[in-house]
Specification:
alpha/beta; 3 domains; homodimer; DNA-binding; Rossmann fold; six-stranded parallel β-sheet; elongated; 434 Repressor (Amino-terminal Domain); 14 helices
DNA sequence: CAACCGATCTATACCGGTACAGTAACTCCG
DNA sequence: CGGAGTTACTGTACCGGTATAGATCGGTTG
C-alpha cells in the first residue's frame, strides 16, 4: 500500500533562501524525528501515526521541501519510472510518419496510467553520450530499427526488459508486430477476388537496386516489407498467377513517384499491392499523369490506413493496422516484462518463457481505389 | 575534457553469474586500485595513466561491468541527461496531430546531438504518481497546455529550467511560439487583397458556446486561437470591413464538419480564414456538399501547412508554420536555460534576464483554394 | 639543496533517498 | 501475569556513483 500524498501549498513555495538544499534531513531535524520517518511520511503513510505525518508534511511545506528527489529515489529503489523507446536514427523522420507517431502516442497513453513516462532514445551517439547506455530507464521498446544497432546492443547488455516492435526480436525477448503477412495476403486476395490477373507488388528494398525484381519469391532485407511481400506472393501464387514486383529504395515521396511511374510505364498491371499508403498514393498520382483511370483501369491497394488513405482521391482501399492496439500491446508487454524482472530479480530464470510473439490483427478496408478487373462480371 | 570511451566487448557480456552486481568497487578490488580511479578510467581518462586505464577497462570488461550506472551518476552529478515535455492530457491526441508530432520530432532531433533524451510527461496523475513531480529530468518544455495545470506548477516548484511553447510563459521563463498574430493577419490580408469583402473567421473556443460570435473582437480563451483571431480581425478592420466569426469546440473532424456546414449554411461568406488546415479542409468539404465552388465562389485559407493542406483538393492556401524551426528554437532555448542554471547554480540570479520571447516566423503559402472575389478584376 | 611542480592516485565525504532489522511501549489473551 | 502480536518509530547499511582535497613521487628550478 503505497499511497503518496503531497501537500500542495496554496501560496508561494516559501523557499527559505540562503539555506542550502532542503532534504529529508533538514525536515527531520526541524520536526525532531528520524530521517526515515520523514521518508515514510511521504512514501508510506501507513507506517506512522496520522498526526505525526500531518506535522511532518506541514513542516516540510514550510521549509519548501518538495518531496523525494526523483534521482535519489531512482537510485535507492532501483527503478526510475520511465521507459525508453528506440526509433530510427532520425527522430524527426519517425514523427513525420503519422502511423509511427500515432503508435508512439498510443504507447505513451497506455503507459501513462502506470505512472511510467516514455523517453525517446536517440539511436546515434552524441559525442560521448549514448542514450541507450547512459539514460536511466526501467525498460525499453525497440521499434522498427536495425536490431544489430549499437544502441540495442547496449540495452541488451544492461539487462533491461525489452520488447521489440515491428521487428525480429532478439532471442528471449517479446515481440509485438502486425500480422504483416496476413495483411499482404488480404491485399492481394482482394485483387484476385476482383478478377485481376496481372498483379504487381510495389514495395521497398533499401539494400537492393531499385527496379523490377526477377524473383518476387526471394526474401527482402526489410522484415516488414518481406512479410507483406510474402503474404501477397502466397495469395497470388495460390491463385495460380505469377506475381511481379518492383522495389524502390525508401518509402518517401522522392522515391515513390518515380517508382510509380516506372511501375506503370511499360505493360501496366491492372492491380497493385503497395507497401504503404504513401506509395499507393504515388501510384494513383502516376496513374493520373499517365491518364490511367483508377479504379476503372487500375486497382490500387495501400497498407496502414494512414490519414492519406482517406485524403487521396479516390479513397484508398487499404489494409488497416490498428496502431492503437499495437501501441497498447507493446506497452502492456513491456510493463509485464518489467514486472516479471522485478519478481524474479535475482531469481533463477531471467526471461526464459518470454518468447512471446504478439501479432496485432489487420483488416481490409475497401474504398474506391479498387474495382473489378475489366472483362469481369 | 570529458571523454568517455567504453569498451565494446566483441563477444558475450561474460556476466559472471552468481556474483552480485558488478560495481566500481568490484572492479577496483579486482585491479587493486581505488574506486575513484576506476571511476576516472571511465569518466575522465586524462586523470590517470593510459596503461593503468587500459588495464582497468580490460578487467571491467572481463567482469561484465557496463560502465557507470545511469541512476547513480544522475544522483551524484545532479543531472540526468533527459528533459521532459508536457503536452496535452491525451498524448495520443497530441501525436495524432501531424503538426505537433512533427514539432516533437524536431525537438528530439535537435536535442539528440547534445545527448539529451526527451521524456514525455503525462499531465494527469497516475494513481499516486505524477510524472512532473517524480520523473528525474534536467528541464522541461511546456507545450500548448494549460499553464495553470498541476503538472506545470510542480515543474516550477522543482526549480527546473522551463521553456513555454505556444503558450503564455510564466513570469521569468522563456517562451517560444509562432507569430500567430502575424499569421492571422497574413491570412486575412490575402483575402482582402483578392478583393473579398465578406470574410468569416472560423476558429475554436473550447469554453464558449459554439456558433456565431456576436463580437469578433472579444478575446478567446485559447491563447493561440485568440492571437490568430486578433491578427485577422486587425487586418479586416484596417481594411474597413466587418469581420464575422464562428467558433466550434474543438479542432477535430467531429466538430469541424458540422461547424463548416453552419458557416456556409446561411448567407455564406466569400472568404474564410480558418484556425487550422483541418478546419479549412472541413470547409472545403462542406462547400462541396453545398455545391459551392472553391475557389470560384469561396476562398478558404488554412493555418499550419499540415500534410492535409497538400492532400486536399483544391490545394489549400495556408499559413505555413515552420515546426522544425519552432522545435529547434524551443530545444535551443531549453538547452541554454539548463546551461544558465548550471552556471549560476547557487549564484544570485535564478533566471532574471530570461524573459526571452522567441517568435517563430510564419509565411503565406498560396495554393488553389483562394481566388479573386467575384466582380473583381 | 630546498622549494616547487605536474602527473597520478587515494581518502573521505557527500548526492538524497530506501530497505530492513530492530526496539520500545502497548494491547490482547489464556 | 507472562508471552505473542501490534503499532510507531529509529539505526544502520546500503544504492552506485562523483567532487574535492590531499598524498606520493620523480624531476625542475633558483
Amino acid at each position: 500500500m503505497e499511497t503518496v500524498t503531497h501537500l500542495v501549498a496554496a501560496g508561494a513555495p516559501e523557499e527559505a533562501v540562503g539555506m542550502g538544499r532542503v532534504t529529508l534531513k533538514t525536515v527531520a531535524e526541524a520536526v525532531g524525528v528520524s530521517r526515515m520517518t520523514v521518508s515514510n511520511a511521504f512514501s508510506k503513510p501507513d507506517q506512522l501515526s496520522p498526526d505525526l505525518r500531518e506535522r511532518i508534511l506541514e513542516t516540510a511545506a514550510e521549509l519548501g521541501y518538495l518531496g523525494p528527489d526523483p534521482a535519489a529515489r531512482a537510485l535507492a529503489r532501483g527503478s526510475v519510472g520511465a521507459v525508453g523507446v528506440v526509433l530510427t536514427d532520425s527522430l524527426e523522420g519517425a514523427f513525420l510518419d503519422p502511423v509511427s507517431a500515432a503508435f508512439f502516442g498510443a504507447v505513451a497513453d497506455t503507459l501513462a496510467p502506470t505512472g511510467l513516462a516514455v523517453s525517446l532514445i536517440p539511436a546515434a551517439r552524441a559525442g560521448d553520450h549514448l542514450a541507450a547506455r547512459d539514460l536511466p530507464i526501467d525498460g525499453a521498446l525497440v521499434c522498427a530499427c536495425d536490431v544489430g544497432q549499437e544502441s540495442v546492443e547496449w540495452l541488451r547488455r544492461r539487462g533491461l526488459p525489452l520488447v521489440f516492435v515491428d521487428n525480429e526480436a532478439l532471442p528471449g525477448y517479446a515481440r509485438v508486430g502486425l500480422d504483416e503477412r496476413e495483411g499482404g495476403r488480404l491485399a492481394a486476395q482482394h485483387l484476385i477476388d476482383l478478377g485481376h490477373t496481372d498483379i504487381a507488388i510495389f514495395t521497398i528494398d533499401p539494400s537492393g537496386a531499385p527496379g523490377w525484381v526477377d524473383d518476387p519469391t526471394a526474401r527482402l532485407v526489410n522484415t516488414v516489407a518481406d512479410e507483406r511481400r510474402a503474404g501477397a506472393v502466397e495469395a497470388i501464387s495460390a491463385a495460380g498467377l505469377m506475381p511481379r514486383m518492383l522495389t524502390i529504395e525508401d518509402n518517401d515521396e522522392a522515391h515513390a513517384l518515380p517508382g510509380a511511374r516506372e511501375l506503370l510505364g511499360g505493360a501496366a498491371p491492372t492491380g497493385v499491392v503497395s507497401f504503404s499508403d504513401d506509395m499507393a498514393a504515388a501510384v494513383i498520382g502516376a496513374a493520373r499523369e499517365a491518364s490511367i483511370a483508377v479504379p476503372a483501369e487500375l486497382s490500387v491497394v495501400g497498407f496502414d490506413d494512414a490519414p492519406i488513405a482517406r485524403a487521396v482521391t479516390p479513397g484508398l482501399t487499404t489494409i488497416r493496422q490498428d496502431f492503437r492496439a499495437k501501441g497498447r500491446a507493446a506497452a502492456e508487454a513491456l510493463v509485464s516484462a518489467i514486472a516479471a524482472q522485478r519478481e524474479s530479480d535475482d531469481g533463477p530464470v531471467p526471461a526464459a518463457d518470454g518468447e512471446h510473439r504478439i501479432a496485432v490483427p489487420v483488416e481490409l478496408v475497401v474504398r474506391d481505389s479498387t474495382a473489378a478487373a475489366r472483362g469481369t462480371t
